[in-house]
Amino acid sequence: MKAIAITGSPRKNGNTEILTRHALNAMEEEGLTTELISLAGLDIKPCTACTVCSNEESCPIEDDLFPIYLKMKDADAIILASPVYFGSASGQMKSFMDRAGYIAILNDRAFEGKVGGALVVARRAGKNFTFAQLNYWFQILGFYIPGSTYWNVAFGHKKGEVEQDEEGLKTAYNFGKNIAFLVKKVMA
């Protein structure tokens, strides 16, 4: 059983990745194979509404998205993690969600029945909207979304500050445990 997490922060090894690794560590403890994919430094262009993906499971935009999409199809669980940018997910994450979501939904709902959910890191505000924004993506695509001990958000601004948010780290860890539990039930 495999879980992948995709982080939408342009900052490698920053707060979003730190929080995400806590969830992945919890899943590894439960026997899942995990992979973290950072969108930092990757070329993810916005959707052009060309509708090619409605005719075939592909995307004519030449960038780094489609290989990640194929990994998502093979995974049993998917996490999307984003920092808050002006009360919303990062632009790169939003472009990624739009394109991967359209390809999946228009091709036999390719992600339906998988387990997934969101992680969000905020300096201060915007976390609830961003958390909802990411989870709406999971809902419309037919994922099973486990809960945790609180909403899957943590606080941090400067690189590494999220490590001071004990409740946020514990929430991400418990979220990872719940993903592993649900994957084992759903995929058994």
Detailed description of the structure:
With 188 residues, the protein is an alpha/beta fold. It has one domain: Rossmann fold. Helix content is 40%, strand content 18%. The protein is built from five helices and six strands. It has helices at 15-29, 65-74, 91-105, 127-140, 166-186; strands at 2-7, 33-38, 77-85, 88-89, 115-122, 153-155. Strands 1, 2, 3, 4, 5 and 6 form a six-stranded mixed beta sheet that branches.
What's the order of the H and E elements? Answer: EHEHEEHEHEH
Q: Calculate the mean pLDDT score and round it.
A: 97
* Overall 3D form: globular
**Helix coverage percent:** 25-40%
Rounded to an integer in angstroms, the radius of gyration calculated over CA atoms is 15 Å
Number of helices: 5
Under CATH, the topology is which? Rossmann fold
Considering the protein shown, what is the CATH homologous superfamily?
Answer: Flavodoxin domain
Features of this protein?
188 residues, alpha/beta, six-stranded mixed sheet, 5 helices, 18% strand, globular
Task: Compile the SSE list and pairings.
Blueprint: E1 2-7, H1 15-29, E2 33-38, H2 65-74, E3 77-85, E4 88-89, H3 91-105, E5 115-122, H4 127-140, E6 153-155, H5 166-186
Parallel strand pairs: 1-2, 1-3, 3-5, 5-6
Antiparallel strand pairs: 3-4
